[in-house]
Amino acid sequence: MGFPINKYSKSMEEYNRALKVIPSGIYGHLGPAEGCFVPVSAFPFFSERAKGTYFWDVDGNRFIDYMCAYGPNVLGYNDEEVDAAAAKQRELGDCITSPSTKMIDFAEILVDTVASADWAFFAKNGGDTTTLAVMTARAFTRRKKIVFFKGYYHGVAPWTQKVDYPGILEEDVANNIYVPFNDYEKLAQVFEENKGEIAAVISQPYMHGNFTDNVLPADGFWQKVRKLCTDKEAVLILDDVRAGFRLDLAGSDHFFGFEADLICFCKALANGYNVSALCGKEFLRNTVSGLTYTGSYWLSAVPFAAGITCIEKMKRLELPKLLHEKGTKLKDGLVACAKKHNYDLRVTGMPALFYLRIANDDSLMLHQRWIAEMVKRGIYLTNHHNHFINYALSDEDIQTTIEVADEAFSVL
Amino acid sequence: MGFPINKYSKSMEEYNRALKVIPSGIYGHLGPAEGCFVPVSAFPFFSERAKGTYFWDVDGNRFIDYMCAYGPNVLGYNDEEVDAAAAKQRELGDCITSPSTKMIDFAEILVDTVASADWAFFAKNGGDTTTLAVMTARAFTRRKKIVFFKGYYHGVAPWTQKVDYPGILEEDVANNIYVPFNDYEKLAQVFEENKGEIAAVISQPYMHGNFTDNVLPADGFWQKVRKLCTDKEAVLILDDVRAGFRLDLAGSDHFFGFEADLICFCKALANGYNVSALCGKEFLRNTVSGLTYTGSYWLSAVPFAAGITCIEKMKRLELPKLLHEKGTKLKDGLVACAKKHNYDLRVTGMPALFYLRIANDDSLMLHQRWIAEMVKRGIYLTNHHNHFINYALSDEDIQTTIEVADEAFSVL
Q1: Residue A65, strand partner residues
Q2: Are A111 and A122 in contact (CB under 8 A)?
Q3: B69 and A267: CB-CB below 8 Å?
Q4: A83 neighbourhood in chain B, CB within 8 Å
């Protein structure tokens, strides 16, 4: 019982201050509405600083961070090479009336790196690119309907939400069709039933949803989906916002052996600098050009400079291989540790972005208690969201994580 | 005939490089599809650096920039105070799993500064906040319909576009009602005809649309709209993305003597650092809390630090007054110069964000030729979009602008 237990008194003070001026105090993945993701009483509300794989909260507690800002931290927080490139560009200028040529350089490196990319279009949110992808598919095909795989997440625009969510109308989701992932027969049937009406199929490379074990594509599934979309002249959209660059620098479609028509990137694109990208095939270039789509900060040059250096470094490191190794080592260690304590810890998804669940208890409460014990001892995990590996995570960090897990299982 | 005429050979080279990897080469306001905004052969495509009120293109030409990155540049490019605050935060961290308390500080200063703000919610695009505002209004009222004033611009989400635009469906705009600006009778009639069905009225503080003279609110118009919304229990949304902080630091609703329920900010919020904010009234706080709305970079701390310093500096300077004075001096000088050459130059909107049109020629061609002569001589204007004043614009810059205008009118 050696690891100190974190106290969060300053976090709580700050949270009470936040409650006065911010709806819910903290929002996004962290708000009380989504509190099930994080063990509320066990986790810090506000961070003070970050470096490498660690962040420190306002009470001075240090965390080995397996959320990586929900993805953007891929090389380690405050990576010196990326920050130096960004700082150099900032001296010149960032958000200027005319774009910097860094925009071209960034598009060139994406086109060189991503197998299915003939062009790149930059925005700010992952959701900007999923919406642009759907608009592109509709404009190109002159069809309305979009097929989703159940358990999807494509951002927060109304068309991506559910009709019973507050603020969402039936019109927002009127052209959505939902099919189980890996169920090719059902997908083919849906295409039959909606002949000539399906503009696109949109999907993550594999199902990394919340509150559920991650599901990898069945053998041949993507290849059949690709052929069906081609045959039926529907656009195949890959939402690689979450998995992008962690599995394969050439795109997660390349990793699973197919080519998407449009591919959406965000999180790992620039190590946290604010930029997203839609990449696509030549045949959709003119369609994208004809859409009305722009934003106040979309030409900002600093994130382009950061993104160029981030991708160059990921290529130099052959990063996906390293993330796979680190994730595998962590996963094997955690599973063995759980087994020692007679717990059945399931680790699903790919090791670079893995999902955790203790399978001994269907209520999830046991799992949540274990996560709480981990977080209180400085290992930042969440309950029911996938986790992320970054380059700065060392063998020693993994070893510490497993030692903490050992103690956390003991006290359950 | 003293001013040198710019050459754009490197810009053209870079544009040709861009065409290979970016749809249209340049997009947003600058793409060929929108080419009417800028005198294409007369303007630079790519910038090299920026400082104060100037930017330099890749051919080394310097411009006095009246577009201010389409708004974000409000204190001058690379403002040293804002950049220092941002750099200090960057040393600590930017996009981290848990937010920085800078988020709270930023919300506090907005609540202190903006008259109609009881809380603030941060995102990345102006359009993130207009969409959130509409969702909030729908969730609160449990109604569907949204009233727009003709000539509106509220971003690029499908619901803000027109049904005949590519990629847009009739479902996207099925609940939109369009009413002429300043036509209170028509608005009241629309409320009668859609009794109990109108969730919100959304509007800019005045009409600063493209291709048309800007239109200020008629006397008492906003007060009547405010009362009608209150009486009919509809939410009044102010889209202050473009005008915000340039007219009044307390919000453009405050400037025109009313209070909106929700107010959308972006461009001038952080002098170009990438952040937007929805502010609102107490009665909508819980509704916003209950929506599903988040993004990968929305907790980034560097833009919060920049925004805090930007707003503090704008307050210290009493900036709107200065921008009004600078804009008025420029406007008076340009109009007098035009008159000397027998041109009727109309300057509409507020001086801090003015719209230009030479009224002698309905075809707009004469106006476009004049703008081209200005841009070729280093005065960056666009044809049919409003312009922006920033703090770094000096009397000498204004004098130079009028001297160039004199020459440009001469050569027409």
Answers
A1: A380
A2: no
A3: no
A4: 90
**Burial class of residue A36, CB neighbours in 10 A (0-12, 13-18, 19+):** middle
pLDDT level of residue A28 (50, 70, 90 thresholds): low
Contact B111/A at CB under 8 A: yes
| Cβ pair B93:A166 closer than 8 A | no
Question: How far is CA B248 from each of CA A389, B76, B254, rounded to the nearest angstrom?
Answer: 46, 18, 7
* CA angle, residues A123, A128, A131, in degrees to nearest 5: 140
Tens digit of each residue's pLDDT (9 = 90 or more) over A238-267:
999 999 999 999 999 999 999 999 999 999
Judge whether B235 and B262 are in contact, CB under 8 Å: yes
Spatial neighbors of A334 by CB under 8 A, at least 6 apart, are: A345, A347, A356, A401, A402, A405
- Mention every residue, 6+ apart, whose C-beta is less than 8 A from residue B127: A295, B154, B155, B156, B157, B160
- ipTM for the assembly: 0.97
Q: Which of B11, B56, B97 to mutate to test the interface with A (most CBs of A within 10 A)?
A: B97
Alpha-carbon span A261 to A232, nearest angstrom:
14
Supply B359's token pair: 């009224």
Our CA-based measurement puts residue B77 at a distance from the nearest CA of chain A, in whole angstroms, of 7
A272 vs B contacts (CB less than 8 Å)? 94-95, 297, 300
pLDDT digits (tens, 9 = 90+) for B104-153: 999 999 999 999 999 999 999 999 999 999 999 999 999 999 999 999 99
Separation CA B381–CA B388 (nearest Å):
10
What is the C-alpha separation between B306 and A362, in angstroms, rounded? 46
Return the structure tokens found at A396: 């020693």
The pTM assigned to this predicted structure is: 0.97
∠ Cα A407 A375 A333 (to 5°): 50
Phi, psi of A101 (to 5 degrees): -70, -10
Cβ-defined contacts of B337-344 (< 8 Å, 24+):
B337/B402, B337/B405, B337/B406, B337/B409, B338/B405, B338/B409, B340/B406, B340/B409, B341/B406, B341/B409, B341/B410, B341/B412, B343/B370, B343/B409, B343/B412
Q: Name the residue of chain A whose CA is nearest to B10's CA.
A: A101
Put simply, whether A294 touches B (Cβ < 8 Å) is: yes
* B299 touching A (Cβ < 8 Å): yes
User: How many other C-beta atoms are found inside a 10 Å radius of the C-beta of residue B201?
Assistant: 27
Q: Provide the 8-state DSSP code for B215.
A: B
Q: What is the pLDDT of residue B336?
A: 98
Reduce the DSSP state of residue A99 to 3 states and report it: coil
Q: How confident is the model at residue A26 (pLDDT cuts 50, 70, 90)?
A: confident
Task: Return the percentage of chain A with pLDDT > 90, whole number.
Answer: 92
Low-confidence ranges of chain B (pLDDT < 50): 32-35
Contact: B27, A289; criterion CB under 8 Å: yes
